């Protein structure tokens, strides 16, 4: 079978790292990079470190408003699909690249597989929620990481082609967690002691584009006395500069986005993670690191229900209190599969 896979943003490179390798044993894959993420440390580093096949096509679309970015992707992906005439298109997650890939494909009558289908925050103000709903309703193969995702789809009347396969990010993480200690020197570079620091990331529009929320989150970081490593997404770096906020504190390590092995090393050695990232909430759970989610809701509800993830929003007091007192339970049941998602996905193509 000839398959076009569409990726464009950091978490999609990581998901494709698992799927592309296995898919290429059985199918002819053409990897299309929309160019949504383009900085070396947001894109190329993952292809190199994770040995992802180089994109066959890079559309170079880059940053822009939702309409301009998604529209340009639709036009250019359609051109690729008309030229290549694949049997299937595969899209990952919930970015503008995901929705553009799915829409371009169905308009050309090409079946769409959605990896990470069925997630919902039930917050339609999130661009990702719109991308998820649209993609799930045009895909014919819906590959879900959790029973909750399957149930969410059923509640919207989507039942055909739905499969519970587990999460491909777990597959990538298991390998990386083994390799990271011998391949990453990030703790030495930053002068960190294992379990003697917190790790923080912030990039969601709801936090970065709301000055009050961003100020409040950063004020909490400045108030925490423990060492904090904060790899800053370019979107967030721009907003911090616009708001003229100084993050100059000896205990606050403000660094550029890091490669995946450094990230996994930072995650697994952290005392606690504070994040608004979807992927990092799951990675925290799998690595048994307590997680405070800087959002008011999450798609990964199981991590919260099990007591390993706590929704603190952007309120400074809630963040500070949770940093001081949050303690997950001893129980840590398996969540989102254990390393078979990739195989199951490829079997269902
Ligand atoms: C996107 C996804 C989000 C995902 C995130 C992963 C959408 C709507 N959002 O958000 O779901 O969680 O990726 O990281 O698709 N920029 C750079 N260099 C880059 C990439 C981005 O400078 O390589 C800056 C640009 O100023 C750009 C801004 O970051 O305008 C936002 O980038 P964009 O890709 O639109 O959205 P993300 O916030 O990265
Ligand atoms: N990540 C990384 N370096 C960083 C920040 C994140 O390698 O500096 C990885 C992280 O470990 C996870 C993925 O990127 O695998 C999550 O991406 P992101 O937070 O950008 O997006 P989301 O998951 O929220 O869509």
Describe the 3D structure.
Strand 6 (141-144), helix 6 (147-155) and strand 7 form a beta-alpha-beta unit. 49% of the residues are buried. By secondary structure, the protein is α/β, with parallel strands linked by helices. It is 46% helix and 15% strand. It folds into two domains: 2-164, Glycogen Phosphorylase B (Rossmann fold, 3-Layer(aba) Sandwich); 172-325, Rossmann fold (3-Layer(aba) Sandwich), CATH 3.40.50. It contains 16 helices and 13 strands. The model has no long low-confidence stretch (mean pLDDT 97). The structure holds uridine-diphosphate-N-acetylglucosamine and uridine-5'-diphosphate. Uridine-5'-diphosphate is lined by residues 10-11, 14, 201, 203, 231, 257-258, 260, 263, 277-280, 283.
List the helices and strands and how they pair.
Elements: E1 2-7, H1 10-26, E2 28-33, H2 44-49, E3 57-58, H3 66-84, E4 88-92, H4 96-107, E5 112-115, H5 127-138, E6 141-144, H6 147-155, E7 162-164, H7 168-183, H8 186-189, E8 198-201, H9 205-208, H10 211-223, E9 228-231, H11 234-242, E10 252-255, H12 260-268, E11 272-275, H13 278-286, E12 291-293, H14 301-305, E13 309-311, H15 316-325, H16 341-348
Parallel strand pairs: 1-2, 1-4, 2-3, 4-5, 5-6, 6-7, 8-9, 8-11, 9-10, 11-12, 12-13
Helix pairs in contact: 1-7, 1-16, 3-4, 4-5, 7-12, 10-15
The chain binds uridine-diphosphate-N-acetylglucosamine and uridine-5'-diphosphate.
